[in-house]
Design a protein that fits this description.
heterotrimer; A mainly alpha (337); B alpha/beta (250); C mainly alpha (290); A: mainly alpha; C: 290 residues; mainly alpha; two-stranded antiparallel sheet; 2% strand; binds adenosine-5'-triphosphate; binds magnesium ion
Chain lengths: 337, 250, 290
């Protein structure tokens, strides 16, 4: 109603409806909050920067998952395969070609993108439990490959002795993790810009349409499979980027990057924050990683119990995750006065 | 004259049950054509075959003279085939305007655009909104579809199909499930469809059929029983038999 | 030639034993999927629980093998009824994502609980004397327990199939899988049917877990580690099918055993590649409805 033109009250709803939809992608101030936190944390918690970079990387990984799980509705338990391919590609490239990081990120994204494209062609022909099973099977397949191809992946020992060069030939990875943190934050920021554009683009809207009602999408002439394979490939590239970042900031790659646990964890982080809203990735990854850092060391067995219980509770009572709860709370507060 | 839509020897069965049995059918350009038949006759299946949701076991489908039998669903839509569903098939969580904009965007080939905000195509949103206004849904544009009463949801079904600017429109029981007080609105919309669209409507309500259709095809057990003008169909003994004697045949 | 023959027999034998366990555990998952449309990833938890209860009853309390198995199956079936009534039933109408998350949550909790009670090491299966050692079939001898496992499983499967084919309960299940709405309009109480079927599937899984304890080792990560096998069986067999998973289990069990025996270096890949290839050819599985 804000945009109502005073002259013609008759067409007022037209203006406001069209106007509202046309403006729906405009940046809201709240969307900058994560970035204030990211920048602020650098100065306030200098001794936690290594954990901070890990969180930033997981946020990036969770955003990549949100594109396919939250927006397109593809339920996967195999996203670590793509993360892991990126991590290994970055590691192998750094060991055998050059330790230059930026080209390493490109290599990681492209390698994961290729794997994502090919596996997407296969799994997106199916749906439901079959699709889920295929994501698992492909993850195990790739993990087994990495395990057996020890001559290039280091097998169970992992890739050791990775030495990264300075970023832009300028910024050395320091032992306090400052460079790593800033590096991860900048990459995440660029990815966020891109992902934000993507989900607000007609392409992104059509993914929501596919999730909401695939039959209808077919009936309005959407090439559904093509859209799904496209977003799966994009998501794979971003997951690969996250994997590459992990390699660059930790200078090590082990088989655990490909593990089923990692796939499960990233799903949980995203669900915890809230799916299909881009910012759930930020909240979920941060809360999960910090809680894990505090609690899991004390009692690793029961950490999993609480995680399980948390999942059950979210499904039963809070399907929108933390951000969903925040939404509900805000609505309640607004309704009161 | 080239028919807007034509099927030749179309066949389909589910297991042992034949649901399309050698259907030869023509829809003239600009037609107002009704497809009627008892429950389970295979009417919806026929539409699913035409739109490519189901694959026929034999036969040919032509749209404007061009064969489309092997074309994907999206390919057929691109060539001007639009449909509505017997049971609402909408994006329930999205607003009415978003529902229709989705269709309009796809028609303009903009549905796959990645590097621009959806809002930057104001023309598409406006086109969708104009369509809603014509169906008197303008005031509901921002409501999520799931909050609309069923009758209005049926209108959104039609609005989405019209957003595709089809040359052939297949309406599968557009008034099904709508309280009779509200069917008039839907009927009105259907009667005022642009004259150049060839319309095939499936409907059980005979008043509606006779009011709307210039031609009627009767489908029974997957086969065309008879085809003719409303007057011919009303007078046809076999049709009476099917409709009145349904019970005696089990 | 003789070596080849002997190896083939051996592969077939052990592959079959593996297949039986896979099928008995997975059939319930397939039916749950077909009947209630529920993606129950936690199905393996019931098998694991069956394994733990069986081994504990035998090893700690000296319960005879047969009784231990029956006790485990009944206990797990009862437990599953509670879970079904109070938790699963609330999610029947929910989306697949909710079901997947919920059941993964259950697995996580089960893993923690089992680890807390039994510790991280695999459970040992102390077989009764009559079932250990080898049994001589004249042309060659086989491990007695695996022979028993195959025989008892086949009996169980025949009973199950006859039950589904011949009993009133079986007819109701088939009708409801075929067309739930139709079944409801015919006066079938689908709520009760779901509970019974769920209990039966879980009880069978527990039996499979107990019987198969020396093939699929009973340890805390059981439900995660073998999940992909159970899912492969039902996806290849065709979701909702009862006999499809049997064919799938035999194919998977025998070929997995064969490849791991013949080409140990790449044995673990082949099965995944084969399954992926098969689903490319038939996305709905061998006996699934497209
Ligand atoms: N996917 C399917 N698998 C198996 N049988 C089906 C399938 N779809 C429809 N049928 C069956 O095919 C027959 C024709 O169904 P269809 O929906 O085409 O009938 P209809 O003429 O549209 O009926 P109604 O007037 O009730 O809408 C019915 O017996 C139906 O049960
Ligand atoms: Mg119909």
């Amino acid at each position: 109603m804000i945009f109502k033109r005073p002259s013609s009250s008759d067409s007022a709803p037209s203006d406001s409806a069209v106007e509202q939809m046309v403006r729906s992608h405009r940046l809201r101030p709240l969307e900058l909050l994560p970035w204030i936190v990211v920048v602020g944390a650098y100065f306030v918690f200098p001794e936690y920067l290594p954990l901070g970079s890990q969180i930033l990387i997981m946020i990036l990984f969770a955003i990549s998952l949100d594109l396919i799980l939250g927006y397109a509705g593809i339920i996967t338990l195999g996203h670590s395969a793509l993360f892991g391919v990126g991590a290994y590609a970055a590691g192998i490239y750094a060991l055998h070609v050059t330790g230059e990081p930026l080209s390493g990120l490109v290599v990681a994204a492209v390698a994961a993108g290729i794997v994502g494209f090919v596996s997407g062609l296969v799994i997106l022909r199916t749906h439901g439990l079959t699709l889920l099973m295929l994501t698992l099977a492909i993850t195990f397949l790739i993990a087994e490959l990495a395990n057996k191809a020890g001559f290039i992946t280091g097998g169970a020992d992992g890739l050791q002795g990775i030495a990264m060069q300075e970023i832009f030939g300028q910024f050395r990875f320091d032992m306090f993790g400052r460079t790593a943190y800033v590096y991860s934050a900048v990459v995440l920021f660029l990815v966020w810009l891109f992902a934000r554009l993507l989900v607000h683009s007609p392409f992104g809207r059509s993914l929501t349409g596919i999730r909401e009602n695939v039959t209808r999408m077919h009936a309005i002439g959407t090439p559904v499979r093509k859209r799904l394979v496209t977003v799966y490939t994009i998501s794979a590239m971003l997951a690969g980027l996250a994997g590459g970042l992990l390699t660059h900031t930790t200078q090590f790659v082990g088989l655990s990057v490909l593990s089923f646990e990692r796939s499960g964890e990233i799903v949980i982080m995203l669900i915890l924050g809230g799916i299909g809203r881009l910012y759930g990735a930020f909240v979920g990854a941060a809360v999960y990683m910090i809680a894990q850092d505090e609690l899991a060391k004390a009692d690793p067995v029961f950490w999993y119990f609480w995680i399980g219980l948390l999942l059950v509770l979210i499904v039963m009572f809070a399907r929108g995750g933390i951000l969903g709860l925040v939404d509900q709370a805000l609505r309640l507060v607004r309704r009161k006065p | 004259m080239i028919p807007a839509l034509e099927t030749i020897g179309l066949k389909k069965s589910f297991g042992a049950l034949p649901v399309a049995n050698d259907i030869n059918f023509r829809l003239a350009p600009g037609a107002r054509h009704a497809l009627i038949g008892p429950n389970g006759a295979g009417k919806t299946t026929f539409i699913n075959l035409i739109t490519g949701r189901l694959e026929p076991s034999a036969g040919e489908i032509k749209l404007g003279g061009a064969e489309i039998t092997r074309l994907s669903q999206s390919g057929r839509v691109k060539r001007g085939l639009g449909r509505t569903f017997q049971i609402n098939t909408l994006f329930k969580g999205l607003s009415v305007l978003e529902n229709v904009t989705m269709a309009v965007s796809e028609r303009h080939g903009a549905g796959g655009d990645m590097f621009r905000f959806a809002g930057s195509r104001r023309d598409l949103v406006e086109e969708a909104y104009d369509l809603l206004e014509r169906l008197r849904l303008g005031n509901d544009a921002l409501l999520p579809v799931k909050e609309l009463p069923y009758g209005k949801q049926r209108l959104v079904e039609i609005a989405i199909a019209l957003g595709l600017r089809p040359s052939v429109l297949l309406l599968d029981e557009p008034a099904a499930g709508v309280p009779s007080a509200e069917t008039e609105i839907i009927l009105n919309v259907i009667e005022n469809l642009p004259g150049d669209i060839a319309v095939l409507i499936i409907e059980h309500d005979m008043d509606l059929v006779f009011r709307f259709a210039k031609k009627i095809t009767v489908l029974v057990q997957g086969a065309v029983l008879v085809e003719g003008t409303p007057a011919e169909i009303a007078a046809d003994a076999r049709v009476r038999e099917v409709y009145l004697g349904e019970h005696s045949h089990g | 030639m003789d070596v080849f023959f002997s190896a083939s027999i051996s592969i077939l034998f052990h592959g079959l034993a593996f297949a039986m366990v896979l099928y008995i555990i997975s059939v319930g998952l397939s039916v749950t999927m077909g009947l209630m449309g529920f993606a129950n990833l936690a199905h393996g938890v019931f098998a694991m629980a069956g394994g733990y209860l069986t081994t504990t009853a035998m090893n700690t309390y000296g319960v005879p093998f047969g009784f231990a198995l029956v006790f485990a199956a009944v206990a797990v079936a009862l437990l599953s009824v509670v879970l079904e009534r109070f938790l699963y039933a609330r999610l029947y109408g929910a989306g697949e994502l909710e079901q997947v998350l919920f059941t993964i949550g259950l697995i996580f909790m089960a893993v923690a609980v089992v680890r807390y009670i039994w510790g991280p090491l695999p459970q040992r299966m102390l077989l009764p004397a009559a079932l250990s050692g080898q049994i001589d079939f004249g042309f060659r001898s086989f491990p007695t327990y695996r022979t028993f496992l195959i025989a008892i499983s086949l009996v169980l499967i025949v009973v199950l199939w006859l039950g589904i084919e011949r009993t009133n309960f079986g007819a109701q299940v088939r009708a409801a899988v075929d067309n739930r709405r139709m079944a409801e309009s015919l006066g079938i109480n689908t709520g009760r049917l779901f509970t019974l079927t769920f209990a039966l599937g879980s009880g069978l899984a527990a039996l499979g877990g107990g019987l198969g304890a020396d093939i699929l080792a009973i340890h805390p990560a059981y439900a995660f580690e073998y999940l992909v096998y159970f899912l492969m069986v039902v996806a290849v067999g065709g979701l909702g099918s009862i006999r499809g998973p049997f064919v799938a289990a035999v194919l998977l069990g025998v070929s997995d055993t064969a490849f791991k025996y013949l080409v140990p270096e790449v044995g673990a890949f082949v099965i995944y590649i084969a399954v992926i290839g098969l689903l490319l050819w038939r996305p709905a599985g061998l006996f699934g409805r497209a």
